[in-house]
Amino acid sequence: MKSDICQNARFSIAPMMDWTDRHCRFLHRCMSQRALLYTEMVAAPALVRGQARHLLRFDPDEHPVAVQLGGSDPAELAQAARMAAEEGYDEVNLNVGCPSDRVQSGCFGAVLMERPELVGDCVAAMIAAQPVEVTVKCRIGVDDQDPETVLPGFIATMRSAGVRRMVVHARKAWLQGLSPKENREIPPLDYDLVHAMKREFPDMHLSINGGVGSLAEVKEHLARGIDGVMVGRAAYHTPSDILLDADAEVFGMDRRVTAEEVVDLMRPYIARHLAEGGRLNAVTRHMLGLFSGRPGARGWRRVLSEGAHRAGAGLEVVDAALACLLPAGAARAG
User: Fold this and answer.
1) Which ranges in the chain belong to alpha helices (H)?
2) Which end of the chain is more exposed for a tag (fewer CB within 10 A), N or C?
3) pLDDT higher at 1 or 154
């Protein structure tokens, strides 16, 4: 079901390579009806030149869902955006934040922070090519750039190109000397700069990203006046802490679910995936952190990790993993 995407963008789950595939997104949708979900980054050349349209596949129940594209050729990105719109995505996002070597070699991702005019040409072409909203996810700067100078100029260029909504990862990216993992952890966070950008560009819808680890932090940023908060790794590793109460706490809905209820909601999806020839661990690898912090969580993870990859593994493995758990709030004797 499609809805007001700006409202959904108050709380979103970051695009994460090898993590936020369609199975992960379906799990997250079972936990929150309102959070805006993002795909892994999809390279525009793979769609346009590689004919890899299957990379855009998603379940209709994932709405609202955005596709993140990577690329730097305006015509190619326009064509990829058109394909995404035809597939039914609610938003098309351009990656200007990923610092990996592979992305740099393709001249897209964070390296594009150094070429704002090219990014402006890209998003203008994407906007003109199809009807779905185009957004940008960026860093506050790269390498020796001065974020206080670079970021406002970059946002202004995006606004001039027609972009009305952006996500800002509140860290620099160091293209030389740091690995992608280190780039997510070592450069210091500058939340104040991102909040200052909201004051400087009140007409822009700005979301903040980077290091947000709890629902309380999400609400804190929103209370400071930012339009949206995007959560990454915490939503993957401890999804129940972040997502189970999000609809109630962020969106004011009368809806709270338990982790056990989420497992029940996943059963028909898993059964359908298995019937189509899929393997159990393709889905359950995203469910390992579902009971994080609960008594028996280690057993849940162990049973799923050891059993779900085996040929022919089915829902009985999920049942065996659930049997390791104690009810919420219970403690083990002795």
Assistant:
1) 5-8, 22-31, 44-48, 74-87, 101-105, 116-129, 147-160, 180-183, 191-200, 215-223, 233-237, 239-243, 246-249, 259-275, 281-284, 297-307, 315-322
2) C
3) 154
- Across residues 188-210, what is the average pLDDT? 97
In the structure encoding, which two tokens stand for residue 310, read together? 């085996």
Whole-angstrom distance, CA of residue 230 vs CA of residue 71: 22
Q: Which of 24, 30, 98, 122 is catalytic?
A: 98
Partnered with residue 300 across adjacent β-strands are none
Coil/strand/helix, residue 205? strand
Q: Please check the confidence at residue 75 and state whether its pLDDT lies above 50.
A: yes
- Structure letter (DSSP) for residue 91: E
| 98 among known catalytic residues | yes
Fold for the domain defined by 5-249: TIM Barrel (3.20.20)
Task: Tell me the chain's radius of gyration from C-alpha atoms.
Answer: 20
Domain 259-322, CATH number (from 1.20.120.1460, 1.10.10.10, 3.10.28.10, 3.20.20.190)? 1.20.120.1460
CA gap 77, 126 in Å, rounded: 6
Question: Widest CA span of the chain, in angstroms?
Answer: 66
- Among residues of the chain, what percentage have pLDDT more than 90? 86
| Tokens coding 269 | 């999806």
CA–CA separation, 303 and 307 (whole Å)? 6
pLDDT of 37: 98
Tokens matching residue 27? 């799990």
Cα 178 from chain centroid? 22
Q: What is the four-CA torsion angle of 209, 213, 216, 217, rounded to 10 degrees?
A: -40
What integer pLDDT is reported at residue 124 of this predicted model?
98
Give the burial string for 147-162 (b: 16+ CB within 10 Å, else e). Answer: beebbeebbebbeebe
pLDDT at 179: 76
Q: What pLDDT score does 199 carry?
A: 98
Question: Looking at the DSSP assignment, which residues form a beta bridge with residue 65?
Answer: 37
What would the two tokens of residue 304 be?
């799923």
Domain ranges for the chain, please list them.
Answer: 5-249, 259-322
Quote the tokens at residue 120: 């402006």
